Structure formats: C-alpha cells, structure tokens
Please model this.
Amino acid sequence: MKDVIKQAERERFLEIRTEFCEKVPLVAPGKMMSSEAITYEGKVFAFFSRKQKMVFKLGKQFDPETQDFEIRVFNPFTKRAPLYGWFEVPYTHQDQWEPLAEKALQTLTTEG
Model:
C-alpha cells in the first residue's frame, strides 16, 4: 500500500511538470540534488524530494506561517542550515502543489 501512495505522489508531480512544460515557454524538466525538477531557462523553481514532498523556491521573504496548510522550510541536511527560500509541502496538501508551482515560477521570473 505504501508503494502505491509513493507512486501517486510521484505521478501528481509528473502531471504538474508536464502541464507546466506544455503551457509555459522555456519551462522544461530538470534535476535538483538528483531529484526530478521543473526548470525555467535552466533554473529550478520546483522539485520532487526523496521524502515524496514537492519543494518550491518561494524566496526568503515568503512566510509559511501565513498559510493555512502544512508548509515548512526545506532542510534536507542533518548538519547544515536549511535551504532558506525553499519550502516543502507534503502530498496530504497536494491540492496546493500547482498553485505553489505557479507562485514559484512567478517568483523566479520576477527576480531582479
């Protein structure tokens, strides 16, 4: 059963990535820390982590406390600081994945 859930999580990520690649010029599949990712002009704005969560680059100014769903600063390391500006959301809130991917793309394309 657990493998079925993991497969559903990955499939949802792949659906989102395919949709972005089809509708947004210069968006393409990519890699982030050996994980599958979504890129814009070669820069990653979202990826699927080994913990089966989707991770988004929303910027350091993004405040996860203002959200009404589970979202945390992404910290894949045990002895290093987290990746500030990157946030992870579990599959239980996969309804937020696509809107957050949109926000992450917008954040990337408006960076100065």
Remarks:
- The chain is about 30% helix and 25% strand.
- Strands lie at 27-32, 35-40, 43-48, 54-57, 72-73, 86-89.
